[in-house]
Structure formats: structure tokens, C-alpha cells
Amino acid sequence: MRILTKEEAKFIDQWAPTKGHLPLALLMENAGRGVAEAIVTATEEENRSLDVVIVAGKGNNGADGLVAARQLEEWGHEVRVVIPCDDKSGSPLFQQQLAAIEALEIPVLTLADGDVFEAADVIVDGLLGTGLQGELQGPILELLDRMEAHVDTYPDTLLVAIDVPSGLNANTGAVAEGTLGMDLTVTFGAPKQGMCLYPGKSYCGEIIVKGLGFAWETALLDESNEHFPTELITAELIDALLPEREPTYHKGSNGHTLIIGGSDGMIGAPLLAAEAAVYAGAGKVTTVVPSDCLRMLQTKIMPEVMTGSFGNLLHLRMHSSEKQAVAIGPGLGRNEETTTLVKNFMTTTEVPLVIDADALWALGHMDIVGHEFSKRERPVIMTPHLGEFARLTGLTIDSIEANRIEVARQFAIKYQVVLVLKGAPTVVASPDGLVAVNSSGNEGMGTGGMGDTLTGIIASLLGQGLEEVEAAMAGVFLHGAAADFLYETRHVGFMPSEVARQVPYIMTEVVGSE
Ligand SMILES: NC(=O)C1=CN([C@@H]2O[C@H](COP(=O)(O)OP(=O)(O)OC[C@H]3O[C@@H](n4cnc5c(N)ncnc54)[C@H](O)[C@@H]3O)[C@@H](O)[C@H]2O)[C@@H](O)CC1
Ligand SMILES: [K+]
């Protein structure tokens, strides 16, 4: 599902009345009616006239609120409007909608009018939308404080945000001091990027998307649009990507995946990756480890996985030839000899490649090796967590977290790689500038070995014929969805191997959902 930045929302806003011949007031009418409809649907069971307070700022977010107020009154609800202060300044559409509200004699109040929220069933936050700048202050902050105090005393009051909760940065998901957690956020066209990122995601409550009255995607196809797209990875998206199997398929049709990793004391990592590759449907899986670890691996690994060992570059090249996908790094260790060896291998091989864990460490700074990757016919997939990504780029973890989507996008474009930047949420960035944000997964996944499992799933899907970016998106979604399935019965203590075991069921459910 496409998600939007504030710049894209603004682009749509400007395209509509100019190139689209659609007045902004028409979009606003659809948006405001969408909010009113969502409120009625959410309170349907009560089947009575509602007491609704619309809190409207002076931009177009507030103007949407005024449309909703007008609509709800027409439908027989008791409506009043609260604005931050008495002067009637504001955006042209705010002023126009306010004039309509006044003509209809819908009460317009300010904080000076005492307890404006008394007896409210629903409070609608139309203070600020995508136009938020800086911190919340003045009467806006005071209104939000009063709303919070009211909801603390009357927790049954339904709190509804228009477009985004006021104070939430629509691009980064950062929240200003004073932002309130909502029961419902009614957003327009598509969810805003910041609603899919933490902490913003936890402030939205249920997200309802309402249409603007035209296919806004057309606006973004305009040649003057220079914004790169961002998507949310959902079950529907993955459904379209997963490989379908013909009745005649055999193990040779489903790809041979190779996992290279392991070192003394870390044999579990390649084992977890290999077993996850089996569960994700690989036709054949082979794991190769340094010679001195081979016996240990063989005593522990499932019988479905073939094993072997390596000691030099020739071995790695031999093992990887005729494999449909190779993942390198899990548990590899950081001794100098191995580091040099795998770095030579990674920068000279053309096999479809997933680079994880200690193999990322072996690369050092990306500026030194990046040009080798950008020359490849097929991009490599890199799967760093924040710490590994910080080392590759020289950026601080804080600066990555503050804008993970854009940082990931620039990295993937610059080095022409598919980047899986792990975290909450994991994002997948592709060399053409697309970023996809994962929607599955949960906090129970914070266990050693979880990343090895992900690597195995991605490599398995790559081996089954998915393109790099598809394998990365499908892999992160299935991995998270498998953990979400475990989360239904417990919130801690998932083992990565258990997550891997759920993957076939999730794949069946997703593919079967057509
Ligand atoms: N994208 C679209 O196509 C559409 C957008 N619409 C609405 O338009 C909204 C955006 O409208 P605007 O661009 O007018 O912006 P907003 O209404 O979000 O905010 C702008 C106003 O807030 C003030 N402001 C900004 N930051 C502040 C802060 N920290 N403290 C106090 N005041 C602050 C500004 O001075 C200005 O008055 C969207 O969120 C959405 O609700 C809808 O009308 C439908 C169409
Ligand atoms: K809002």
C-alpha cells in the first residue's frame, strides 16, 4: 500500500486545482465527509444523536474539521466548534468554512468559554495536520492539554484525529511534546509515512483511510513530481510476490540456497539461517562452515540441509557456483583471515547474494567497497541492524533513527544495493529509490538469532526466483507475520527457530488469501 510524505500530500494538493481541474474545496469536502462518516461508523452501535466537539486549527486541517462539523449537524448530531483564539484569521479555506459554520449558527467557542468539552461523546482533533512545524505551543498546546484532562476524567470519550494526530511529524513519526494518543485517525488518500513509524504509530489508534474523490496516484505520475515513493508492506503486497508452484515442480525448480557462516562458538547462526531457508520453501539448502566447525554443525543441523566446509576463496567459489542464492555472514566471526577471505569473495562474485552480520562487518566502511557492488548486474541484499548500519556509513544511530526511511533510501541509491535496515519497523530500500516499510513484527522478536532466521528466509525466496527487492520485502513481512502469530499466545520468549517453523503456514495463508 502506498504511503505519503507531507511533500507528496502537498504536491497532490497543488496538482488538483491546477492540472487536475479539481478545486481544493472539493477535496476538502470529501475529506470532511470522510471524517464524519468514520465517526458515525465508530459509534454505530449507540444509534443515537452524538454530542461532538470539533477542535479546529486555522489551516486546512481545521477547515476539514469544519466540513465534518457541518456534515454531522446535517445528520442530526449536536455539534460545536472550538477554535484556538477569537481572531478569524487563517487559511482562505478555513475562513470560508468558518463563515459557513457561522451562517448555519453552529456554535463557535474558544477556551475563554469555560468547559468546552462538557458532555462530549466525541472530540475531533483538527488542530494541525501535515502543516505542523516545530513544537506545539500557545493556545494549541493548551487545547490539547484540556482535551487530555477531559479524556482522563471521561475515558469513554472517543478521540478522533483528522489526517494525523496534531503534533505528529507526518514524515518521520516523531511526536512533539503535548501530542495526544487517539482512538481513531481518519487520514486522506493514504496513511502518512510518520503514521507507520515509531513513536507516531502508537499515537494513531485505528487508522481509517478516506478517499479524496479522485485517483490521487495520477497526480504523482506527473513529470514534475520528484518525490521517491514509499510503500507499506502488507499481506496483499506479498501475496502478489510469492512464488506460485506448478504441479510439476520438483526440488530443482525451487532453487538451491547456500548459507556461508559459522565459527567456533557460533555454529547456531548458520544453522538457524539454513533451517529457516528450508521452512521458507527452498528446493535444496546447503550450509558451509570453516573446516573445524563442520563436525559440530553436522551433529546439530536438520537432516534436510546438506553441509560442507571452506578454507579459501576457491572453496567459496566452488560452493556458490550453480546456487540460485547465497547468504553470507551468520556467525562468521571476525578473525582477520576470514574477514579478508569473505570480503574478497563478496566483492568479486556475481551470484545473487545476501550479506548479513559478520560479513557486513568484514566490508568495513561502505565508501571503500560500495563501487564494487554498484557495478554488479544484480544488486546485493544487505541486512544490517542499526549498529551495523552505523558502522557501514559512519552515521550515528540517533541520526539514522531520526529519519530511517530517507537515510535508507539514499544509501540504496548511492551504492545500488537492496538495503534491509532492520528495526522497528524494518525498512527495505531499493536502488531505484523505492522504500517499503514493514507492517508486521512485534517486540517479542528481540532475541539472538532472529536476524539469522530472516537472512535464511530472504535467501530462500531469492533462490526460488524472486527479484532481490521482492525477496527482501516478502522475507521481512513473513518473518514478522510468523512472530505476530506467536504473539497471539505469548509476548516474550520466542525462539527464532519457532518463528521459522511458522513461516510455511503464513505463506500458505497469504498465498491462499487471493
Ligand atoms: N493533501 C491533500 O490533498 C489534502 C489535505 N487536506 C488537509 O490539509 C491539511 C494540511 O493543511 P495546511 O497545509 O493548511 O496545514 P495545517 O492545517 O496542518 O497547519 C497549518 C497551520 O498550523 C499552524 N502551525 C504549524 N505548526 C504549528 C505549531 N507547531 N504550533 C502552532 N501552530 C502551528 C500554521 O501557522 C498554520 O496556520 C492536511 O493535514 C489535511 O487535513 C484536506 O483538506 C484534503 C486535501
Ligand atoms: K489533526
Automatic annotation (TrEMBL):
NCBIfam families: yjeF_cterm, yjeF_nterm. Its cofactor is Mg(2+); K(+). Keywords: ATP-binding, Isomerase, Lyase, Metal-binding, Multifunctional enzyme, NAD, NADP, Nucleotide-binding, Potassium. Residues 9-220 form the YjeF N-terminal domain. The keyword Metal-binding applies. It catalyses: (6R)-NADHX = (6S)-NADHX; (6R)-NADPHX = (6S)-NADPHX; (6S)-NADPHX + ADP = AMP + phosphate + NADPH + H(+); (6S)-NADHX + ADP = AMP + phosphate + NADH + H(+). HAMAP family: NADHX_dehydratase (MF_01965), NADHX_epimerase (MF_01966). It holds the Pfam family Carb_kinase. Binds 1 potassium ion per subunit. AMP binds at K422, G423, A424, P425, T426, G451. PANTHER family: ATP-DEPENDENT (S)-NAD(P)H-HYDRATE DEHYDRATASE (PTHR12592:SF0), ATP-DEPENDENT (S)-NAD(P)H-HYDRATE DEHYDRATASE FAMILY MEMBER (PTHR12592). It comes from Veillonella criceti. K(+) binds at N61, D125, S166. In the N-terminal section; belongs to the NnrE/AIBP family. In the C-terminal section; belongs to the NnrD/CARKD family. Its EC number is 4.2.1.136, 5.1.99.6. Homotetramer. It comes from the Bacteria. One of its GO terms (molecular function) is ADP-dependent NAD(P)H-hydrate dehydratase activity. GO terms for biological process: metabolite repair; nicotinamide nucleotide metabolic process. The gene is nnr. InterPro entries: Carbohydrate_kinase_pred_CS (IPR017953), CARKD (IPR000631), Nnr (IPR030677), Ribokinase-like (IPR029056), YjeF_N_dom (IPR004443), YjeF_N_dom_sf (IPR036652). (6S)-NADPHX binds at residues 60-64, 129-135, 163, 269, 331, 385, 452. CDD domains: YXKO-related (cd01171). Bifunctional enzyme that catalyzes the epimerization of the S- and R-forms of NAD(P)HX and the dehydration of the S-form of NAD(P)HX at the expense of ADP, which is converted to AMP. This allows the repair of both epimers of NAD(P)HX, a damaged form of NAD(P)H that is a result of enzymatic or heat-dependent hydration. This is Bifunctional NAD(P)H-hydrate repair enzyme. SUPFAM superfamilies: Ribokinase-like, YjeF N-terminal domain-like. Residues 234-510 form the YjeF C-terminal domain.
